[in-house]
Amino acid sequence: MKTLFSAIVMVVFAVGIHAQSRLENAKKQASQNKELILLNFSGSDWCIPCIKLHKNIIETDEFKKLETENVVVYINADFPRNKKNQLSPELKKENATLADQYNQKGLFPYTLLLNAEGKVLKSWEGLPSEDALAFSKEIKSIKENQK
Q1: What is the CATH number of the domain that holds 136?
Q2: Rg of the chain (C-alpha set)
Q3: Where are the transmembrane segments (predicted)?
Q4: Is 11 a residue whose pLDDT tops 60?
Q5: How much is the pTM?
Q6: Is position 8 within any domain?
Q7: Average pLDDT of 66-79?
Q8: CA geometry: angle at 128 spanning 140 and 51, to 5°?
Q9: CA dist 127 to 27, 69, 130, Å?
């Protein structure tokens, strides 16, 4: 009986640790490093504006500097449709939870700039009209105004 109880406790503990989401980790990192959180909802294999956003902004050196210079912590909540691109069940569940909290309308792409507590500072519905440089400058400006 002790073995069964121990096994159950270990499983519950393991699930509890895993349930700590990327957002919770991002909040901790953002708080420690005085960063913002950029949360992007995308359909990486079906949403053309999402694909353009990633190619023209997220994957650029200009945007990557925001991460390396401790300006933002980036989270991509992806909702692929193709079978070959499916996410793990845990990641699907986590993305669904993020969508329930921050993207109830189901917009794609939908990008949010959050503070370390998870409060929305700015949102972009659809593909941002800015290029990577202007997008990055806007985020830096918002961060500077948070001080």
Answers
A1: 3.40.30.10
A2: 17
A3: none
A4: no
A5: 0.86
A6: no
A7: 97
A8: 115
A9: 25, 24, 9
Q: What sign does the dihedral 137-140-142-147 (CA atoms) show?
A: negative
The CA-CA-CA angle for residues 59, 61, 65, to 5°, reads 110
User: Residues 112, 122: contact at Cβ < 8 Å?
Assistant: yes
Q: Are 113 and 38 in contact (CB under 8 A)?
A: yes
Return the bridge partners of 78, or none.
42
Phi, psi of 79 (to 5 degrees): -130, 70
* 123 contact partners, CB below 8 Å, separation of at least 6: 110, 111, 112, 113
- Mean pLDDT of the 70-77 span: 98
* 69 domain residue, yes or no: yes
User: Residue 46: helix, strand or coil by DSSP?
Assistant: coil
Q: What is the mean pLDDT of the chain?
A: 90
The answer, yes or no, to whether residue 103 has pLDDT greater than 90, is yes
**More confident of the two residues 16 and 117:** 117
